């Protein structure tokens, strides 16, 4: 049923109003929520193709038993029919009573796989076998992931989909299904998570060179750019400094003039700051600018320098750390 509801051809044609009303009723029956309790109200069951063949076979056996007055034929027919009815009850009970919980999805970059982690919990005293989950949608092939839920325990399932664009994206519907134990009936339910996943802009590859950094106020130092592109400076020599940090080119001058030795300041990058500015990406489309800024945000964290972000109408002051990086990427993801 969910495949029919997601069919893009259902959005046009003479039956479009009827399908729209049906979709509205279906969505109202399944409100968005990050938790779901499966009950008789939201678990559905129908015979499978094998189930219909099984029913047809029972009909043929019954007619043959009536025509030829076969007592063993009656026994076999009703024995198989009883097994089918028990199978229907077990199939429905496999889903009924399950509790589903969604773990918060982690942010991803556009074009990467976003993970939807579902936790299935059961309070029953028996193991629930053969439960399949997949993400609904006409653009996704019906790829099922199967699990068993232990008695009184839980099982975690991870489903994934490709984030098509940046921004805050709704999670696809999750379809649950089981055909346990005989495959004669298919019980299923649909779960509409309320949570969203944040998709950052896809970083530009290869990463373009970073804008130049500048020295800020504080302890006096002479900042320069090394051949490797890293920022470094010099400071007064301190007892215990490794000999490899001493600037020997200035040592002779310091001895002649009575000055002090100086050492390379490996922490000078912490006193440097640079701005990742929207204006520095001129000539690109808005999405390409966001992609370049995202690449810069990832690259600048490896340098250790304090950095800030400027977007039209808003500014994030220079800082460092994971929280600052996430705030900048979120700003790029939600920029409009």
From TrEMBL:
Q: Which domain of life is it from?
A: Bacteria
What spans are recorded as compositionally biased (Pro residues)? 203-212
Region (Disordered): which ranges?
200-229
Keywords carried by this UniProt record: Membrane, Transmembrane, Transmembrane helix
* Transmembrane residue ranges: 50-68, 74-95
Transmembrane as UniProt keyword: yes
The molecule here is called Conserved hypothetical transmembrane protein
What is the protein's species of origin? Methylibium petroleiphilum (strain ATCC BAA-1232 / LMG 22953 / PM1)
Lineage summary: Bacteria, Pseudomonadati, Pseudomonadota, Betaproteobacteria, Burkholderiales
